[in-house]
Amino acid sequence: MTSGGKRAGAGRPKTDSKLYTFRAGGEIAKMIDSQPNKTDFILSSIKQSLQADISSLGEVIHASTVKETKLPFFDIKVVAGFPIPLDNDEISQDIELIKMLCPHPEASYLIRVKGDSMIDAGVMSGDIVIVDKSNRNPNEHEMAICELNGEYTLKQVMQKDGKISLVPANSEYPIIEVKPDDMFSVWGTVTYIIHKARL
User: What's the predicted TM-score (pTM) here?
Assistant: First the structure.
């Protein structure tokens, strides 16, 4: 027998759990402190948030449930000048529409929008936006689905001097300032907008 080395069954058992720390604002801190089991309350709140109902935005469809659709694609430049014949199938190729529009289909959703707060950004009521949930860090030139105090909205996310603002693309709607005590998160970033051609 030799001494030293690792003993079987010794030490802390392996687990996939991780330890997180965070700072909560005044009202949220009071709510957490009032709970008899803070850990269970926080985990339950997180699970509810992940399963939150975003149907208030409109009809929501996961990209993976959309039936595969292939369309002929002509890889040519179309100009608003003299007509170009597009009736030659030999120069077309089939593309899978959802894969082209959804960079990450497993994390993408199609949402039919209700409301006109982003009309000047080309999103009209009834349009479909494709949202990538794997991207929760939109830049100032992108739109995002945001959750603010349990409600969902489609806005431009602006950050300046450590402050976050949700900016509409319609002058009839106010800019929403996210306060320190607000529960705020980015649900996903818009990758494409689908709507009927309008003049």
Answer: 0.60
